Amino acid sequence: MAKQRQKKQRQTPRSRASAAQVLLNLQASGFVVTFLVLIVAGVVILSPTLRVLAEQQQEIAGLEAALAESEQQVVALEEQRERWKDPAFVETQARERLLFVYPGDITYLVIDDGEGIEDDAGIEISTEIVGASTDWRESLLASYLVAATTSQDYQAEITKAPGRIPSPDQESTP
């Protein structure tokens, strides 16, 4: 039994040392927990500020892009203003936009140049070659014969009734 007491006495300082270690570990763990709580609190406190900072940075980038675009527009308008100071440019614009001409000039105005036709009109375009069903020579000859055999009375009808113009397919009535 004496040997057991000696073992207990020997274990007592060891057990005291291990208890001290546990307390030190707890203190260290308490320090870590306190440090982590402070970090989380800092993130919670700073996150709205950081969000506002990020939004402001995005807004600044957008405003800088708008400023660069505005500067390009200013440069383009200044170039256009310089062009309008040139008499040759002004003359060209007047001739194109306002259809001004010099005396003796002959101009042609195309009325239906196909600008009003939409590309996506819903009409299917065939990829196959289609032959014409009429002979153009016969159409030309028929047109010539109608024009050659039309009487002067046809012209008189047109002048009498200016609101009604017969089509070329209709025959003139005497």
> Which sequence of SSEs, written as H and E, runs from N to C?
HHHH
State the helical fraction.
55-70%
Helix-and-strand structural type: mainly alpha
Report the β-strand fraction as a percent range: under 5%
Shape from CA axes? Answer: elongated
Structure at a glance:
By secondary structure, the protein is mainly alpha-helical. The protein has helices at 2-84, 87-97, 136-149, 152-160.
Describe this structure in words.
This protein has helices at 2-84, 87-97, 136-149, 152-160. The protein has 174 residues and is mainly alpha-helical. The protein is elongated, with a radius of gyration of 49 Å. The model has no long low-confidence stretch (mean pLDDT 77).
Looking at this protein, list some descriptive labels:
elongated, mainly alpha
List the helices and strands and how they pair.
Elements: H1 2-84, H2 87-97, H3 136-149, H4 152-160
